[in-house]
Amino acid sequence: MTQRFTQSRIPTKPVYGPDDLAGWDAAEQLGEPGAFPFTRGVRAHPQDGGGWIQRELSGEGDAVRSNAQFKYLLSKGQTGLDIIGDTPTMGLLDPDHPFAEHAVGTQGVSICCLDDYRELYRDLPLDRITLSHSLSPAFAVAGLYCVARERGFDPRGLRGSVVQAPFYCEDTGYSVHMPFLLRQRMAVDSIAFCCEAMPKFHAFLEDTYYISDGGLDSVEEMALGFVEIRGIARALLARGVAIDSFAPRIAILLNCRMDFFEEIAKIRATRRLFARMMRDEFGARDPRSLAVNIAAHTSGLSLTAQQPANNIIRGATQALALALAGAQAIEVSTFDEAFRIPSSEAHLVGLRTQQLVQLESGVTRVADPLAGSYFVESLTDEMERRIWEMVQHIEQLGEPVRLCETGWFRELFRNAMERHAQELADGTLQKIGVNAHKLSEEEDVLLRDVAEEKIEPCRERIDWLRSFRASRDAARVKTSLHALHTTAKDPDANLMPAIVAATEQGATMGEMAGVLRLAYGVPADPFGMLEDPI
Amino acid sequence: MRPIRVLIAILGLDQHEVGAIAVARALRDAGMEVIYLGRFNLPAHIAQAALEEGVDVIGLSCHSWEYLHMLDPLFEALRAVRQDVPVVVGGSVVTPNDARAIAERGVAAAFGPTAESSEIVETIRRLARER
What we know:
The complex is a heterodimer of chains A (534) and B (131). By secondary structure, chain A is of the alpha/beta class.
């Protein structure tokens, strides 16, 4: 009999039975839903007591166009927002940077200053929807904070999240071209700021999605996530922020690929691992510090350019897995993912996918319905064991800053990307349309028309930004940037008040990022093409 | 016979590297030398690297449409340093229509998401030998 494996190469048997759970203690391993160790979920009641936040990742063009997109999705029943920046925004470059010219607004929203945030949130009920951000945390928090205050919403009532990804972003995904210590500082400062100023906001949304969608498996994904959570937690404690002050604001945005039971086991194992770690190692006492919210984005890497209609089915199986696993927020990658950021048609299908699972499948009637399954509990235990083993292995190798500098993480990501390509090439990873049940290009026409629709870069942003810069009180902007520089050079100071102040004066994200780089001894412009902002 | 030298790069701010890394690996496995520029390149960077490294083929990995706006500046930059190197383009965003359009603009070969790595390797080998 051929040995079978999960996608993370965990061996599986053809059948599981009572013997596989011999000696297994449900009280210890599971507890009740909503109680330690939260294996069964962070809520005591089944999903349809509150459901999960249903949203589609969005953001396109300028802030005005994105605002219209948010309203469209909200009108179709979405219950929260998740906003992603275009590649210049994610790289902390203003749209008028020479590198940005052809990329403005094509892969997310172009935002760089307070005026943009004002348009982004125009006429939105900031007190009634959750506002999640796949944006640079320090600047996104500052923008939201300023607009909320201007509009008369108490920032202390704001709900939502912002991704934190300081350790790995230079090696995979969204490089911000900043040294490790500066990236860590921006994470610590934005989280600490929100503990006081926006205490209902999950400022510490550990983002394992984007680091894993290059090809990491589920064990690697969560191990790196925990290494980052632990590293940032330690940095916050060293700063003097109490564990029970920030731990309740930790949530995890994780990936969901196609291995149905593995992804469910991963989530259950993650909740249990987090709870035990927080209580036993970090000494957290507040129950909310032990219960980690799980948000999930379904895997873009698992989708194909071939036969895009199949991506709808992939999204549906992934959404089902996430509902069964008790996720608190779900984003379904759209069927046109391989070609473009989501068309409105594909966005709607993604949203309907979640709504259908919730309203038609009945799986939400019962909390953690898979609990007690011989296979699922065995797999949950095994995932927990492997994730924890890898966390310890990584921590033994050295401090995260060293592992970054020596390229250890980079090597892990590169190996994972090569492994993924190899698995597709040799059929280890079966993928319909790619290595199974292929169609010729002539036959593969269903939903392919969206592939030809291109989004033009928003070049008008470049002109707009030039006149915006000219319209500012240049002296006050300069003063605020100098103040930010001074603050940045003091390692014990929190950057956020100075970032908020500079934002209010009209400083752009690119300018502020440049000043921060200077304070940390690297060129303001990573590509050496701009004058220094101060 | 000296190994074929291939430059692999990603233009603009496109952050997806999976494809580039996979192709680089396939080319190395086929005995070619890969000069891997990675992400964040402008046409001038590629032309400069082509000049300095003496490459036989340039491969651009594309997961965004930025490359469409940078092909003409790239050809201009290559001409300016007298590097008449064939340029091939590959990525999931390259549709059959795109492939036809960019062939007319001077791209030597274009690969969409269905291309097998063996096809990419053989095309690059052929282009290198034909120079």
